[in-house]
């Protein structure tokens, strides 16, 4: 009999080595399976992972959904359970996948929050360049918006990833996949200014990491969130903003400007063009607003 503890341990190893997922994603998936384990523990059924049936999973989803009405939350945990049982099937631990027929709830299209160019400029203008971290924060915002990076890609950006002559940045994305993203003169200029401040820091983490805190260590994801939220408050922007908002804005402004969707997909590092297509929906709403504002019959 395979215990939950061993099954989850093996699952995490599989996600790390076979799927090359980030530690955050691995923890999220394993947490989903822990919830399934807790469900059976509460029922005191003594159910092991190999004995679970389709009906058991339906009972679990009903139990979980009673406290979690949000369709996205439900869909997220179903995705984790599916991945777990697909792993057990691949490993030969089970002959039939009980999760194969489990359906996710229907989710409406949720368009991400987007900043206008003037809002981004307003946030940048709030940065106090007289402070030691001023030029660093300006370079961070310009790089996030100028290259459409994920926050994890930004904090792991290395000095040697920037190719000044070619005007490109080597970005290491999900699953350690690398892509080349163009970087504009504005972001390059701000990085150059920041590097003068960076050279004065006692670098103790990694000589090659680009963005550092004042103790010379790599910035955390949480620190980037704090920097962005503080600037939004100072700029009087009431939208729900995170570092990812700059990535959405980067893509939206490109699509609105007529950029080829495949090119945007390549720059964002999306596996599927379907993921990138959400920005065509944003673009359509932009076009509709334009029509309503300027057409004499609107």
Mean pLDDT level:
88
- What is the terminal-to-terminal distance? 67 Å
Question: Helicity, in percent?
Answer: 55-70%
Shape: globular
Category by helix and strand content = mainly alpha
Looking at the overall shape, the CATH architecture of the largest domain is Orthogonal Bundle
What's the quaternary structure here? single chain
- Count the DSSP helices: 13
Domain module tally: 2
Total beta strand runs: 3
CATH superfamily of the largest domain: Intergrase catalytic core
* Side-by-side strand order of the widest sheet: 1-2-3
State the low-pLDDT regions, or none.
Answer: none
Approximately how much beta-strand content do the residues carry? Answer: under 5%
Q: Any idea of the CATH class of the largest domain?
A: Mainly Alpha
């Amino acid at each position: 009999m395979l215990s939950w503890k061993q099954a989850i341990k093996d699952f995490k190893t599989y996600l790390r080595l076979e799927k090359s997922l980030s530690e955050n994603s691995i923890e999220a998936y394993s947490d989903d399976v822990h919830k399934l384990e807790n469900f059976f523990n509460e029922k005191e059924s003594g159910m092991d992972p190999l004995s679970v049936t389709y009906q058991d999973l339906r009972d679990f989803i009903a139990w979980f959904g009673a406290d979690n009405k949000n369709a996205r939350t439900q869909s997220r945990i179903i995705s984790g359970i599916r991945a777990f049982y697909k792993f057990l099937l691949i490993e030969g631990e089970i002959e039939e996948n009980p999760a194969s027929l489990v359906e996710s709830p229907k989710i409406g299209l949720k368009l991400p929050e987007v900043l206008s160019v003037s809002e981004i400029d307003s946030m940048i203008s709030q940065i106090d360049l007289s402070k030691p971290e001023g030029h660093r924060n300006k370079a961070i915002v310009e790089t996030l918006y100028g290259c459409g990076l994920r926050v994890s890609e930004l904090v792991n950006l290395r000095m040697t990833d920037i190719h000044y002559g070619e005007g490109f940045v080597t970005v290491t994305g999900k699953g350690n996949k690398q892509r080349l993203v163009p970087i504009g003169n504005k972001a390059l200029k701000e990085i150059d200014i920041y590097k003068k401040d960076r050279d004065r820091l006692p670098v103790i983490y990694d000589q090659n990491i680009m963005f550092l805190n004042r103790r010379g260590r790599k910035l955390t994801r949480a620190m980037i969130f704090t920097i962005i939220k503080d600037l939004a408050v100072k700029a009087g922007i009431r939208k729900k903003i995170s570092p990812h908002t700059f990535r959405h804005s980067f893509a939206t402004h490109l699509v609105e400007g007529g950029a080829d969707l495949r090119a945007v997909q390549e720059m964002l590092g999306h596996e599927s063009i379907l993921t990138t297509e959400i920005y065509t929906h944003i673009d359509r709403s932009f076009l509709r607003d334009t029509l309503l504002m300027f057409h004499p019959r609107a």
